[in-house]
User: Which sequence fits this backbone?
């Protein structure tokens, strides 16, 4: 398997505290039956063999590389993840846990993103639910073993993109607002808070605002920040995760193919209603969503990474990617990630929720949203403890008539990996 620079940069971005991994928790309507789950995973991985891989560095090679792994995917009881790429995970980049009604799918983020792993998850759920209830359900858009794996699904999309020449664009001259000026006295504890609210109610509000789910979620977070601060000395920024698959001509690619759309929220937007904020940020989104802009961003990123790889020394390359990751954290305050409504068809009555947990290696706040089973399932992941921000966000929703069911804040558990 060929090793693409973008995947490698994500892998090297981690350290002993930030592992660049993704955990997807799927709550079912009944307790998990481990023997049936074992069969479903073993069946689904036959189609998604590109997730049955290790990331290894062979002595004498400059970098780690992605290699096929024929060992069985590890399934463990309990919520505590196994260490990915270690012996306890059979050296896989993927592992699975179950506890009560919930199945946890853990994967190294440089292998794929949430869009990619959800396809494997849906296929696994399909075979699990069919066996558990003794019925062959209509598969709909779910990829079963009867759906051939195309070259476009396997193809690394970055191999067909020529890196940009010359110097890449400089980072913004003006720094973003610092969390310390918004929320004070937060201990250094990484936390998460889960919440759900009605998909119908929220989408109706999105239509009233003339926005999109991502635009409205970003605006609601910004309004919460405004309420917690008297006056921001610098703009508050959110970064919307953007699926770049279409832009690089690889709509079916399984790889991590994500880019960024940056929204700036300034003091003159403080008292704007949400619909007005959406109108302003839509212009930012439309400009940064053009195929030309997205492809240009990919080319610049590949050019930066080509320069790093040209250092020719493993330790120097690792250090350079680490420094680049830390530099980004100066400018990015909150990241918003929303995949789309998950179309599960006949399986939907058996699935209660899907929550995503991403090791927030790129920002201090990471807001992950999935829509399934008639509700939005949100994880509010923070690199600081305290519910002031999530409470302010929830209050924004309640003011417009959207009721929120929220759990208490708890310590974030994300899978780690072995370099």
Assistant:
């Amino acid at each position: 398997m060929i090793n693409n620079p973008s995947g490698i940069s994500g892998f090297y971005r981690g350290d002993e505290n930030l592992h660049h991994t993704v955990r997807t928790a799927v709550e079912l309507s009944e307790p998990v039956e481990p023997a049936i789950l074992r069969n479903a995973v073993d069946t689904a991985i036959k189609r998604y063999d590109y997730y049955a891989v290790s990331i290894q560095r062979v002595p004498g090679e400059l970098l780690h590389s992605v290699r096929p792994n024929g060992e069985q995917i590890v399934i463990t009881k309990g919520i505590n993840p196994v260490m990915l790429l270690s012996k306890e995970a059979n050296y896989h980049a993927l592992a699975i846990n179950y506890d009560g009604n919930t199945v946890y799918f853990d994967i190294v983020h440089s292998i794929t993103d949430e869009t990619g792993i959800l396809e494997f998850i849906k296929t696994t759920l399909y075979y699990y639910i069919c066996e558990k209830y003794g019925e062959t359900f209509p598969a709909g858009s779910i990829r079963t073993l009867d759906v051939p794996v195309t070259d476009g699904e396997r193809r690394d999309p970055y191999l067909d993109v020529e890196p940009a020449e010359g110097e890449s664009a400089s980072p913004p001259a003006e720094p973003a607002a610092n969390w310390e000026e918004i929320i004070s006295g937060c201990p250094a504890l990484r936390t998460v808070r889960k919440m759900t609210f009605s998909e119908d109610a929220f989408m109706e509000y999105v239509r009233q605002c003339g926005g999109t789910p991502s635009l409205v979620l970003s605006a609601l977070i910004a309004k919460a920040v405004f309420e917690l601060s008297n006056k921001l000395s610098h703009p508050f920024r959110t970064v919307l995760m953007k699926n770049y698959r279409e832009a690089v001509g690889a709509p079916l690619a399984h790889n991590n193919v994500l880019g960024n759309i940056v929204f700036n929220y300034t003091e003159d937007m403080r008292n704007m209603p949400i619909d007005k904020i959406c109108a302003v940020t839509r212009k930012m989104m439309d400009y940064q969503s053009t195929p030309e802009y997205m492809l240009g961003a990919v080319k610049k990123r590949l050019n930066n990474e080509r320069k790093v790889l040209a250092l020719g020394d493993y330790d120097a390359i690792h250090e350079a990617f680490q420094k680049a990751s830390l530099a980004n954290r100066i400018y990015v305050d909150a990241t918003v990630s929303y995949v789309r409504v998950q179309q599960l068809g006949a399986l939907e009555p058996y699935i209660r929720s899907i929550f995503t947990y991403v090791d927030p290696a790129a920002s201090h706040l990471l807001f992950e949203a999935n829509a399934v089973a008639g509700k939005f399932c949100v994880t509010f992941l923070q690199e600081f403890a305290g519910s002031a921000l999530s409470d302010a966000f929830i209050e924004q929703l309640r003011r417009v008539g959207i009721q929120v069911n929220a759990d208490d804040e708890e310590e974030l558990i994300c899978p780690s990996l072995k370099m």
DSSP finds ten helices and 15 strands in the chain. The radius of gyration is 21 Å. The domain at 179-335+362-409 is CATH 3.30.559.10 (Chloramphenicol Acetyltransferase). The chain has a mean pLDDT of 88.
